[in-house]
Amino acid sequence: MPTMQIPKKLRPFLKPKRIKCAVGGRGSGKSMSFADLCLMDAMTKGIKTACFREFQNSIDDSVHALLKSEIERLNLQGFEVQNNQILLNDEPVFKMRGLAKNPEGIKSMHGFQRFWVEEAQTISFNSLKALTPTLREEGSELWFSANPRSSVDAFSQRFLKPFEKQLRRDGYYEDEMHLIVVINMADNP
Question: What are residue 178's DSSP bridge partners?
């Protein structure tokens, strides 16, 4: 039976933090690790995850296919993959949504304990501003997976620039609220 394999650099994501960011290039294991951790948390803790991208014209642009693939690869039981959401034991545990067309629309997303923003380097200031206060559940977390492009985008300005010195020196930054990890292909066995 296949097993979940989380790169060593992302294992700190198992502990609670309000904001978790994995930043790096393609092939680093960010997206697959996030998918596996979210699936595991749905099964073991009942955590519901809203999955976002700034630009999502269809479900094909979301992490829906990745989650479906991992459910199949890991032979996970109890999941039902529907066209626009994924259920676990008949309860919605994953929903996908684009942010660009209506960032204020996320304010109606109740009952989620986690927001996962894929391709977070493209998130707009308005979307980021709407996301943060919307997720209010106790112990809730905001997860961001990003391939950095520009130091002036909203994601970099909020989550990378303030901690740039530590990120360059150590490859990670951590405080009471944040866990930010730089991970690349060489870190993914």
Answer: 19
